Amino acid sequence: MDIHSLGVELDIETRRQKQQALMLKLVERKVRSRAKQLYETRGEVDGHALQDWVQAESEVLGKSILAPLYRRSRTENQESGQLPDREASACETSA
Predict the structure, then answer these.
(1) Burial readout 50-70 (b: 16 or more C-beta within 10 A, e: otherwise)
(2) Domain tally for the chain?
(3) How far apart are CA 5 and CA 44, in angstroms?
(4) Which pLDDT score, from 0 to 100, does residue 74 have?
(5) pLDDT tens digits, residue range 49-88?
(6) What range does the domain containing 41 cover?
(7) Is pLDDT above 70 for 12?
C-alpha cells in the first residue's frame, strides 16, 4: 500500500465518521423534539423528563433505519460516561 492510497482510505474513513456524527445529531434532535412534545402535552409538569426521553427514543428509533448506529453510539457513550445534554439534565432532575 502506497502513501497516496493510505491517504485516500483515511479521507474516506474521516468522511464516514463525520457523516455518522451528523446522522446521530439528527436522530438526537428528533428525540429531543419529541420529548419536548410529550412534556408539553402533559401540561409541562416537571419530574418526568427521563420517562419522556425514553419514550421519545423508543418512538423515534422505531421508525429509523439509523437505530442501530444510534444505539451503538449510546452504548459507547455510556461506557465512557457521556450522555446527551437533554438526557443528562433529565437524570439530574429525576434524582
Answers:
(1) bebbeebbebbbeebebeeeb
(2) 1
(3) 55
(4) 81
(5) 999 999 999 999 997 888 888 888 888 877 776 555 545 4
(6) 3-94
(7) yes
